[in-house]
Amino acid sequence: MWIEPPDPVTTPGGTVVVKCSTDCDQPLLIGLETQLDKTPEDNGTRWRAFRLRNITQDSLLLCFVNCKDKGQMLHSTNVTVIQPPEPVKLELPPQWILVGQNFTLRCQVWGGKPRQNLTLALLRGSQELSRQKAPEQDPRKAAEITFTATARIEDHGVNFSCRAELDLQPQGLGLYQKSSAPVELHTFGLGTPHLTSPKLLEVGKEENVSCEIDELFPVENAQIHLSLGGRSLSSSVTRSQDMLRATAIATIQEGDREGQWELTCNVTLGNQNREVQGNLTIYSFPLPKLVISESNVSEGTLVNVTCEARTGAKVYLNGTPKSPGKAAQLSLKAAEEHDGSWITCQAVLEVLGEQLWRNRSLKLLVQYGPRLKEADCPGTWAWPEGTQQIPRCRASGNPTPSVACVRDYDHMSLPLGVPLKVSRSHAGPYRCTATSRRGQAAKYVTVTIAEPPRDSVPIIMGVLLTVGLAIMAGTIAALCLRQRKRRGSYEPQMLPLRDRQAD
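and the corresponding structure tokens:
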């Protein structure tokens, strides 16, 4: 006994024709037992067909035959009312997925009867990743399949979906499809941030700090933040391909504590976070205090100087060191050599093994009377007559003296610092006087005029001309001699001497 079709299916409220067949040679009766509305459709010697109408739910079908030789035979099957897949749901990890990390796609579908005809396909965009038959289980429960994939950069922002297919085309009922709502996948690449900053930061000063992270994807979705001691720093952010950089100016105001402050860089991408910390040592090191009793004094005045620095710093006064924490002092009697000199107070502080220096200097001015020194105003000036000379006679002194050189017997003065064409009239002794409000100084200088050297150019030209003529005459004679040798033998000829008296 058998039934055709063996597993009949129909749409809700539909109609199915089933055929009960047997191999009994002498069937007495062929029938169909069912709760469904049935009518005979057709028959033959060993078969009978029935039309089943208004099928709304799955029902049992029982075909039987009363065979003369074998007795009664039975065969049963179920008519299935199809249920298209509805709904379909795709689950992705709710968080961002690191590139290279595995993740699981889970697809669930309700309905989809008969299950043996149900297939589930997982899609990346329009690309099919996996196709699996739905497990044959209670159709009242959701059918579920999973697929493990590896996150790629290309997957970021791509829609994934699940499609359920109930294929009843062999039964003449068509293909029923239903897809889940697309789910966007977020992948990311996130390296380790790197901080760049100085070790030290002085109170009241500014230093650049930066944080950089590479191997970052997608860089446009990442955020970076810099903070110092819990205080947010105003950062300038740049993005380039897979790199993100933040730069900021760190500064500490007066009154903030010295010591180590924590510098933090925080990078966020989606729901992921990377953070790195570093230490920045804050210190205060003002310029040393330099005190001088008087910086503009008269020659011979006693000058007192004091140099002090912050606690823990070592001071140097004009290069002479003092123990840390102690002031340096200096006393001097102002003299000419001190005028215009610098008094320097230096302080050195060691922080984290690094020596920091601070300097403060004052210029000492010493007022003293005019000085006429030989190096600045020579006692003897020897000039060749007719040459250009610049008379120079300078005097030292504070304030700077004025200088004048005057000949005693006729009061003629030399134009100091101005080009002068020398003549014999400039010879003689001159009194040079330096004058300032601090007094006067004087000395005699003697100007001597030497005769100009003779012009040697005509003599040299005459010598050169004579030598040239001699060389020319010798050359001509040699040429004549060579010509005669070419014509024949050469014999010297004696010329007759004329009588001196005939002259």
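(Above: one complete record from the training split.) The first strand starts at residue 2 and ends at 4.
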